[in-house]
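Worked Example 4.2. Read the sequence first, then its structure tokens.
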Amino acid sequence: MTLCLGRYLKPDTYCANLDDLDFPAFFEDGYRLVLLDVDNTLARHGSFAADEYARRAIDRAQQAGLACRIVSNAGKKRIHAYAATLGLPYVAWARKPSTRGIREACRIESIEPEATIMIGDQILTDIVSAHRAGCLAVLVRPRYNQEALHVRLKRFFERIVLAAYKLKTGKQRRKKRS
């Protein structure tokens, strides 16, 4: 048996930031739930409160008819505080790339993973867990350059993956649910 890691590493969509995402198109394509990572996707690592960028993204998704939930590897105390500033439910200690957090969020929302979008900034956690769970995997560029050493090491590998797939940010690719 051969292990094909490649299918887990390539995002379905790669965008510069959350403002580039067409949430109404996702809804039109049959998606109903958006799961969002926090650190360097919505906010600076360690943030306890949402900023205007995060609020705008959540508002746009919800106005398109999509339910939103935070799925983060960060601890419960901080994610509880952060999610409260957005009025969103959350799953903390998600352990991505495990599918546990994504599956828990889908179960609570009563929405199948196939109708779910996972949005994050890291291939090795957010994108891999999205694919493993059966979700649409959306990669956004990290919002900030200041990161912990272990994240910077992962970013080196991620640059190789992005180059191998010749991925550049740009227009959102449409992938309708089957």
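Now turn to a second chain, presented in exactly the same format:
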Amino acid sequence: MTDYTLRVIVFFAVFAALIVWQWRSPRSTLQKWRYRWRHNLLLFSSGVLVVRVAQPTLLSLVAYSYNEGLLTYIDLPSTISVFVGIVLLDVAIYWQHRVFHTVPLLWRLHRVHHTDPELDISSAVRFHPLEILLSLCIKSAVIVVLGIPALSVLLFDILLNAASLFNHTNARLPKKIEKIVRLIIVTPDHHRIHHSRDINEANSNYAFFLSIWDKIFDSYTHSAKQGDLQIAIGLPQTKQYEPKGILSLFTMPFWTHSRTTKEVKGD
């Protein structure tokens, strides 16, 4: 079994299990799920195509420079090295996510993810293909510079995919379990705050897998101002905004600020 096959099998197994969970124990009633799923899955398909085209070249570049990274100069037991590699990749994606919210040019790409007016498991794959490509390039650079072990990369990809699906799921853990789990990993309630239309809440809770990064780097919000059950989901604007049609999602990063503002106010 190839690494890619393993990733795909685990992804769809987790996807199926979480669909059952959000179907049996929905956190909120979704109003536009058919419309949203069609768009989200089309974006997902385009992202998969980008990965399949770009990954072979990036893997070749990574392999060419593989023995030059930081961890290759540190004598660690293989198990510890794999663990450290996973942690380093996780903190790297935390900062990548935070920078995508901070740098206007990068936010143009990432805001496509935040235009989803509701949140469920399909939101986990709602990313513009150019953001997918850029993320793949950033991850490859991190692997090369830090000398991340190949097993760390495989395990982290599996964990990250599962975590992203989990923390976007339209379901809620029991309060006692939520309190414990949130100490370690990002939960749906933790991440839901990040999708709030409140700008301060949207600019918090950047972590994807390990929740500790938000606390260490002072970006943690425990509860929404409106209450966790009343969070308004979408872009941090004064009115709800959703691009009209799949084409607008693909072209959204290239819109001018004035057009975006005008259409937000016009909704």
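Notes for the reader: The chain has one domain: 3-266. DSSP finds twelve helices and no strands in the chain.
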